Amino acid sequence: MxxxxxxxxxxxxxxxxxxxxxxxxxxxxxxxHCTSHRHLFKSxxxxxxxxxxxxxxxxxVHTPETYYSHHIGMHHAENNLEDDDxxxxxxxxxxxxxxxxxxxxxxxxxxRNLLSYLHRKNRSKLARRRLTGEIAFGALCLLLxxxxxxxxxxVFLLPLVIYRLVAMLGNWTQHAFVDADDxxxxxxxxxxxx
Length: 194
Known about the structure:
mainly alpha, globular
């Protein structure tokens, strides 16, 4: 909207940024989680199941197909154990420095590692879906940068960093008390960290 400029633009941008990142993103993430485990629409309306990850979710910076391919395709299958690329087991789980290393690793090479994992486990369809979603989102952001780069930064790129940080923080805290001696046992927790 080229007629909105100056302080009005920044005010509306700040309002959108706050509502999107701190008001709606949590419930939308929960909805993505639920619809990853159980489709929203019956098979005869299956095409409508693409609306959430491909149309709605990118406005809350969930790149299309990313959540499903990571959460269902790898994380649940591997359960935070050795083959789970988002496993917290190799990190000191009561250390901010260790968390920052964990997040940095995920942010820098997480997409590549997930694609490699999915190919290694013969889940090529999920790998294609993930790669297509990442490329489509990246192409959209690149195109939008030519239209209005500050808006693209505030609506898509900065929130993408925030979302991926929050997602990894959620995974980190969920697995903070896993017993290192028996990490595959979800009923056995270690309530002190060393």
